[in-house]
Amino acid sequence: MAELLYEGKAKQVYATENPDQYLIHNKDDATAGNGVKHDQFAGKGVLNNTISCIIFNMLEEAGIKTHLIEKLNERDVLVKKVDIFPLEVIIRNITTGSFCKRLGAPEGKVLAEPIYELCYKNDDFGDPLINEDHAVVLELANREELAFIKEATLKINELLKAFFLEFNLKLVDFKIEFGKTADGEILLADEISPDSCRLWDVETNQKYDKDVFRQDIGDLIETYKEVLARMEKK
Predict the structure, then answer these.
(1) Which of 129, 161, 214, 234 has the fewest CB within 10 Å, making it most exposed?
(2) Four-residue CA torsion sign, 121, 179, 79, 213
(3) What is the per-residue burial (b if ≥16 Cβ within 10 Å, else e) of 215-225?
């Protein structure tokens, strides 16, 4: 039995025979509100894994380096070992969610340019919003690393917006994570799925993401299945 190295809200990370590689197993758990709301949905891990692998492969082809090596099966992926930066990197293209609550902004405003945000990935403190100065002082990343992460994230945003638009979906916002290999290369890590990004239908603004679970406004599994179905029609 492989050694379990880490268990998060939706994933388990296992050691492999290769010290430079990990196995990530996608669970069926769904959480919201920093874990306050929690449930399980049969098949969610399969959907997230499938969607995320399609997106990561697209990004790789576009020149974004990721930790993904290969999809092993419906739930498991083999990835490069990285030390994750304790940062949630967020892009907002349309106002919604915590941004509106925090700043009193109107819901659904299309922004003239994307808003780039950083959060300190720490459950004990509720993943607080920070700036780059905070990140440097807390030794979460240095200036050079932060500059690379911001440039890569803005490029990823443009690629994802165009990608989802092909499936009649607007990329409202998303959060991603980065990690660093032993030789210092920074890679896109974790996942990109309806768990980590908000997607609205272009015509109706119907939500196709984890907000259906957060807000109890729809069937999470059927929602994710629809996202995958649109992607597989391409």
Answers:
(1) 234
(2) positive
(3) eeeeebbebbe
110 DSSP assignment = E
Closest CA to 193 of 15, 11, 5: 11
DSSP H or E segment with residue 111: strand 110-120
CA–CA dist 10, 49 (Å, integer): 11
Q: Are 129 and 119 in contact (CB under 8 A)?
A: yes
For residues 50 and 74, the answer to whether their CB atoms sit within 8 Å is yes
For residues 210 and 217, give the distance between their C-alpha atoms in angstroms, rounded to a whole number. 10
Residue range 174-189, pLDDT digits in tens: 999 999 999 999 999 9
For residue 23, list its beta bridge partners: 14, 78
Model confidence at 35, pLDDT cuts 50, 70, 90, reads low
